[in-house]
Amino acid sequence: MKHRLRLQDVALLGGLLIAGLPNPAGAAPVNYDEAKVGEIPLPDPLQMADGQPVTNAAMWYQLRRPEILRLFQTQVYGQPPPRPMVQNFRIVAEDRAALNGLATRRDVVLDIAAATNGTALTFTLFLPNRRTGPVPIFVGLHLFDTAHPHPQPAVARRQPGTPAPTPEANGRIGRATADRILARGYGLASLNIEALAPDSVTNYWQGVARLYGRTQPGAPAAEETGALGLWAWGLSRALDYFEAASDVDARRVIALGHSRMGKVALWAAATDQRFAAVIANDSGCGGAALSKRNYGETVAIITGAFPHWFCGNFTQYAGHEDRLPVDQHELLALIAPRPVYIASAVEDRWADPRGEFLAALHAEPVYRLLNAGGLGVTTQPAPDQPVGATINYHLRHGQHDLTDYDWDQYLAFADRCVMSAATAPGHSH
Ligand code: GTR
C-alpha cells in the first residue's frame, strides 16, 4: 500500500521543493528511484471507454477526443468558463518605439459581462516593428513583468544557502531573449494572473470565477475549474484579441509556458484548437508528466500544496493514481495533430523528466493516426539532444528553468513548424 502524505508533510513539500531542493530528512517520501516507480497501465488513447478501437481520424475527432476531453474537464482541471457573450478589449497604452525602436508595445485590458461585469484580464504584447504583415506570436503567463517598460532579466537561479526564488520570477524572459524573439519576426505577449485568478487557495476565485458567479472562498468543487483552467481561459481570450487585431496572425499563435504555466499552456491548447502549437517547459505533474508514475511530484503532493489549481475531483486520486481514468499522454493527444514541444531538465527531477518523455511517446499513436508524424525515437534521448518532428522533446542539462538553450530550440521549432508551415497549423478542426 502506498504511504499517504500527512498534511504537514505536504505543506513542507510545497514550500521547500519549489526550487528542487532535496527532500528534507523526515519529510514524506518523494520517490526518485526508477526501480520503485511501479507499473500502472496507461489508458489507451485509441480505445473508446467501451473498448472499441479508434481506427480513423473521424472516429478520433467525433467520438474519442470528446470522451478524453470530458475526462480532463470532470476529473483533472474542471469545466472551463464559457467564452464571454460580451467582451471588450481596451488598448490602455501603446508605445511604437519600445525596446529602442525594435517593437511596438501594447497594454490591453479585457472587460467582460458575465454574471457580474468587470475586468477579466490584462496583458502586454510586443510586436516587431520590422514586419510586412500580421506576425506569429508567442503567448504565455508571467513571461515578463508587465509593470516594467521592457522585459527584465530573469532572476538568478538559487545559490546554495540563499532563499528560493518566487515561482513567479522563475522562467521569466529577459530583455536579450525578448529582442531575439522580436528580431526573428515573432510577437511576444504575456498575461497577468491577478485579474484572472490570483495564485492562492484563499484568493484564486476573486477574478474570473467571481465574474462567473462564485461568491465565496473555498477549494474548487468537484467539476469546478481551478486556477490552471482559469489561466488557460485567459490564454484563449488573448487569442480572441489576436483574431481581432490586424497585426497578429491568429492562425500562428504559440502557447508557451514554464512550470505551472507549462501545465496551463498544454491545457489551453487542448481545450482551444485555435492554438497553432504549444511549448511546455519543465511542466511536470499536471503538465506533461504522467500522473500514474510515482516519481517526483505526485497527485497527492500537488493537490495538497495547490488545492486551488485543479477541480475538486482530482484530489480523490491522491495516492490512488491507478483509478485515474485518464493520463497526461492523452492531454498531449488532444493537441494532435498540432506541433507540440515538451522539455525537461536533468536536475528537475521533481517534474519527472522521464514521465514527461513517456507522455510524449505515448501520445504518438494519435499523431500517427492523424498523419502528423511523431517523435521519431522510442527511448529518451541523452541530455542536450533534441528530437522530434511534430512532437518534439529535449532533456537539457541543468535545473528547473527556462534558459537560452531552451529558447534556441523553441525558436527553431517555431520557425520550422509554425512560421514557415505552408498552412498554418492553427484552426485545424
Ligand atoms: C512547484 C510545483 C510544480 C511547479 C512549480 C512552478 O511548487 O510543485 O508543479 O508548478 O511549482 O510552477 O514553479
What features would you describe in this structure?
Helices cover 28% and strands 18% of the residues. It is built from 10 helices and 10 strands. The chain has helices at 7-16, 57-76, 175-183, 208-211, 227-244, 260-271, 299-305, 328-335, 353-369, 404-419, and strands at 86-98, 103-113, 117-128, 135-141, 187-191, 248-258, 277-281, 340-345, 387-388, 391-396. Strands 1-2-3-5-4-6-7-8-10-9 form a 10-stranded mixed sheet, with helices on both faces. A hairpin with a 4-residue loop joins strand 1 and strand 2. Helix 1 crosses helix 7 (299-305). The longest helix is centred in the first third of the chain and has 20 residues, at 57-76. The site of beta-D-galactopyranuronic acid has 9 residues, from loops.
Question: What's this, in brief?
Answer:
This protein has 429 residues and is an alpha/beta fold.
Q: Mean of the pLDDT scores?
A: 91
The second-level CATH architecture is: 3-Layer(aba) Sandwich
Query: So what's the CATH class?
Result: Alpha Beta
Strand order of the largest sheet: 1-2-3-5-4-6-7-8-10-9
Write the layout of secondary structure elements.
Elements lengths: L6 H10 L40 H20 L9 E13 L4 E11 L3 E12 L6 E7 L33 H9 L3 E5 L16 H4 L15 H18 L3 E11 L1 H12 L5 E5 L17 H7 L22 H8 L4 E6 L7 H17 L17 E2 L2 E6 L7 H16 L10
Parallel strand pairs: 4-5, 4-6, 6-7, 7-8, 8-10
Antiparallel strand pairs: 1-2, 2-3, 3-5, 9-10
Helix pairs in contact: 1-7, 2-8, 5-6, 6-8, 8-9
Bound molecules: beta-D-galactopyranuronic acid.
